[in-house]
Structure formats: C-alpha cells, structure tokens
Design brief:
It contains 19 helices and 10 strands. It is α+β, with helices and mostly antiparallel strands and 489 residues long. The chain starts with a helix and ends with a helix.
C-alpha cells in the first residue's frame, strides 16, 4: 500500500473519536477496539492488530510487468480477484504507463490559499497519474467495489459494453449506483477531449431517504452535488478509463487498475492491500457502508466541475463515443476539443441516448464479499442450541464447496463467451474508429475545397475573406485557423 495512504489511515485511526459516546478502551492482547467511520470503521470491532497487518506494512514485491502483477493477484487473492483481471493486463505498459498523450485536467491550488475551488486553474496530468491519485481513501475502495458489482451484474448480458450498461440517464445500472450516492461523469483534457475517461464519485445523500428514483437521480446529478471526503480530506472519487483496449467495453484489467498499479509500486489505496487478509476487506466495506448510511462522512465543498472543469455525464460520453468522438489519445486521434464534442452532444439532445438496455443477471464471483455474504455458518445451527456440531459444520462446508464449483462453472462459461467475442469487438472498435477518422478527414477536405472556391471568388469580387472562412468553419464545425492553413491566397 502507498506510504501516504498508510500514514493517512493511521492518522485517522489515532485522531478520530470512537463511534459511541463512551471513551475508547486501549486495546490489549486478545481485545478489540471500535473506531468511527472517519477512522475506517463504524461501530464495528476489528482486531487490535488489523492496522499493523493491513496498513502498517510496505509491499515487499513490486512487479515491472503488469501481467505478472495481475496474475499474482488472481492466483493468490483468495477470491478478491477473478480470472477477468488478466484481460488486457498485458497492455498496461504500452497504452497507459508509457502513454503521455492521454491526459486529464484537474483543479490545482494555483493561488495557494489551501482551498481548491473554481478560482483555481486546471492543470493537465497523465491518465496514469490521474488514476493513481484518485485512489487515496477507503471511500474509493467502496466505490470501486460497488462499480465492479454493477458491471459484473449487467455486463454478461452485453459483453460488458459500457453504452449498453450506462447509455441512458436512467439506466438500471445508473439508478443502482445513484441510490448508493454514486454519480458517473466523463472527464479529460479539454483541448483534446475523448469520451473514454470516467469518474465515479460519492455525493452527500442527507435528506434523500424518502425520494423516488427520479428525485434521487436529480439530486445525485445536480450541478451543486458535493463530493464526500474522509477524515483527512481525501475525496471519494475514482477514475476508470476504457484505455487498455479502447473498445467501449469494461475489460477486467481496466476494472482493477488500482490493484495492478499498486502491485507495480504506484502509490494508491487498493484491494491488493488486503492480500492475505481478505476477510478484513469484506469487513471494511461493511463499515464504510454503515458510515455512509449514518452520514458519518463530511462534504468536501467540491463538485465534479470544481475538481475537473467542464464535464459530460457518463451517459452522454458512452453514447458520444459512437459517431461523435471516439478518441483514444496515444492510440488514435481526431483531436476534437471538449467544446466541439459538447456542441454535437447538445445538438443531438435525447436522441443521443441509445443504451442503458443491459439486463440484470447474477454477479459472478467478483470479490470475496459477493461470495461470502450468503454463507454464514451460524445459519447451519439447525437446532438453535448455539453450537455448530460436526454434522452441521460438514453440511456448511459441503454447501460452500458446491457454491464455489457453481460459481467457477459460471465464471468459466462467461469467460469463454468473452474470449469468443473479444477479438470481434476489438476489430469492430478499430474499424469504427478508422471510419470516424476517415469521415473527419473527408469532412475537412470538403471544407477546404469549398473554402478555396469561395476565397478564389471573393478575391475576384473584393469580398471579405475572413467572413467567408468564419462561415465555412462554423458550417463544418472545424477550427478556423486550421482551415486557413490549407487555403492558397
């Protein structure tokens, strides 16, 4: 785990008050201690050694190969990671680590007042740095878990296509996340926009208990929805990008980049920190959820636009990838700005949305919390005597093993279907991207031809050339200066 996160979490543990009004009792051998949500736990007991075991250690093994890191996580994660984590892991170095062209604008404290707000300037960061920096809190582990749960529930019905899952403002997947206080937005470099980088952020949900789904969506996606933060002021907001294979689908390695990058030595809080203590991960999620339900996390006074400047919603972006702007900087580019992309998105309006139709299935073995939540050995105390007999324990183990086999079988079936479709998806995505680039090139050629003819005519008649160029550049939605470079005068 990142050293910064270690100190953060230890400081939170030390400085936060206990959840109850009673004074905290110092932990002794064999005892346990409760801490408030801002100190990672909420009215739950953890062993006194938990923080030393999980947060107080440095990673001994750092991988130079992302695939090796992913393979180790899948092999030794004891249920934290499934086979999908290997999908496209081999592309992490080429398309992410060594890619400086894919960038994200983030607000920095440019005026040095200690507060980041809309008076501060935006600074460009590589996608790699932006992803790593976004994973700095226990809130981020919770968001990642819920996102993985939703995608693994809806993904198998559509080969994990993001437009099918999130391509309407009120898709079932979007509503499920919104009920948890999680909103999804598209972010990026505003001078070189692409529709493939998304943030998932926890917002303040106080007062929403009796709201309808429609009201919750309006609340979560309001312009002034404030992002939650932990005890040290780190915001509950993660970045996920369709960046390893820019094909519009959620690949396994893309969904687990925080853990893969953590294993490669980058400083981020991740699920990989729980290798060898997997039960603590499940407990952590329960405690964070309890803290959220009881409004134990404070608002940061920051909104999505405060943090990233202008954004699209994820629903807009995953649809705009098709036909408007399918850039994957460092891989292929049409070089549209945010303003150009947004203009076309606004022009299409509700007709833009052609997704959100993915059907709900069963989440398949994506993390130990999903596997264990239906298996509590206490439920096998059939005579209610408070004692688990050998026969009852054997029945529990039998059912557990059967469930594991069923999950493995389902996972393998889905994996085979993925592998059969993956190459076709990549081929179609590249073909579509190529077609988009060709369409843009053809459009630009048409604009140049029309402008050249108009300029030639204007020169003969003594007309204002600037007015003509301005009119044609607006007609074709291209940059005026770029058009002028191609005109002979």
């Amino acid at each position: 785990m990142a050293l910064a996160a270690v100190e953060l979490l230890k400081a939170a543990q030390k400085n936060s008050a206990p959840a109850s009004s009673a004074a905290a009792t110092p932990a002794s051998s064999g005892s346990s201690t409760s801490y408030s949500a801002t100190a990672i736990t909420f009215n739950q007991t953890y062993s006194s050694s938990l923080y030393d075991e999980i947060y107080g250690k440095e990673e001994e093994n750092k991988y130079t190969s992302a695939y090796d890191a992913a393979f180790d996580l899948q092999k030794n994660g004891n249920g934290l990671f499934d086979r999908r984590i290997l999908d496209n892991a081999a592309l992490v170095e080429k398309n992410l680590v060594n890619n400086e062209e894919w960038r994200v604008d983030q607000r920095q404290d440019s005026n040095g007042d200690g507060v980041i707000d809309e008076t501060d300037e935006l600074a460009s960061a590589s996608l790699l740095d932006a992803i790593v920096d976004s994973f700095d809190s226990e809130l981020d582990l919770y968001i990642e878990s819920q996102l993985q749960e939703v995608i693994e529930t809806y993904g198998p019905s559509c080969n994990y296509n993001l437009r099918a899952i999130f391509g309407s403002p009120n898709s079932p997947a979007t509503i499920e996340l919104a009920k948890l206080g999680i909103r999804a937005d598209a972010v990026g470099d505003h001078d070189h926009w692409q529709n493939r980088t998304y943030t998932f952020s926890l917002v303040n949900m106080e007062g929403t208990e009796d709201m309808t789904d429609e009201e919750i969506l309006a609340h979560v996606y309001s312009d002034d929805a404030e992002i939650l933060q932990d005890a040290q002021g780190n915001k509950g907001s993660i970045i996920f990008a369709d960046c390893l294979t820019a094909d519009g689908t959620a690949q396994g390695a893309e969904m687990n980049l925080s853990s893969i990058l953590d294993q490669m030595g980058y400083e981020c809080v991740s699920k990989a920190d729980f290798m060898g203590n997997e039960d603590a991960y499940a407990e952590l999620l329960v405690n964070v959820k309890a803290g959220l339900d009881n409004n134990q996390y404070a608002s940061s006074n920051s909104t999505i636009n405060t943090m990233y400047g202008e954004t699209l919603t994820m629903a807009q972006a995953v649809c705009a990838v098709y036909g408007i702007n399918a850039d994957a900087p460092g891989q292929w580019s049409c070089n549209r700005t945010f303003e150009q992309t947004k203009q076309m998105v606004d022009k299409l309006g509700d007709s833009l949305y052609k997704g959100g139709s993915a059907t709900k299935g069963e989440a398949i073995n994506y993390g130990i919390e999903n596997f264990k939540k239906d298996f509590n050995i206490d439920n096998y105390d059939t005579n209610n005597d408070g004692i688990i007999s050998e026969q009852e324990a054997a029945e529990f183990e039998k059912d557990l093993e059967k469930a594991a086999d069923e999950i493995k079988e389902k996972t393998e079936k889905v994996k085979q279907e993925e592998e059969q479709n993956q190459q076709q998806q990549i081929k179609e995505a590249k073909s579509e991207a190529k077609a988009n680039i060709q369409a843009q090139q053809d459009l630009f050629k048409d604009a140049v031809s029309e402008a050249q003819n108009a300029v030639d005519e204007a020169l003969k008649n003594g007309e204002d050339i600037d007015v003509i160029i301005e009119k044609i550049s607006k007609k074709y939605d291209i940059d005026k200066d770029e058009l002028l470079k191609e005109i002979d005068m």
